[in-house]
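Input structure tokens:
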């Protein structure tokens, strides 16, 4: 998968889980996304620690950082 299709996939996932179309993922929406992706750890605490501006919601930029962190960690476990 090239960089452009990965970026499109990330944007599509963000929009798909942005249930209220606010342009942000609420913490509950992000937790749902992570569970659907197979993340089973204490995601509520983990996600709260990634809310960089502590507003309880995640912009697309914050989401990309979370996605990239997950991909980096996943590569480390293979």
């Amino acid at each position: 998968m090239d960089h452009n299709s990965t970026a499109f996939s990330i944007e599509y996932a963000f929009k798909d889980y942005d249930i209220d179309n606010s342009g942000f993922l609420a913490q509950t929406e992000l937790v749902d996304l992570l569970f659907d992706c197979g993340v089973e750890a204490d995601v509520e605490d983990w996600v709260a620690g990634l809310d960089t501006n502590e507003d309880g919601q995640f912009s697309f930029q914050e989401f990309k950082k979370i996605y990239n962190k997950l991909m980096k960690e996943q590569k480390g476990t293979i």
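The longest strand covers residues 25-26. The mean pLDDT is 76.
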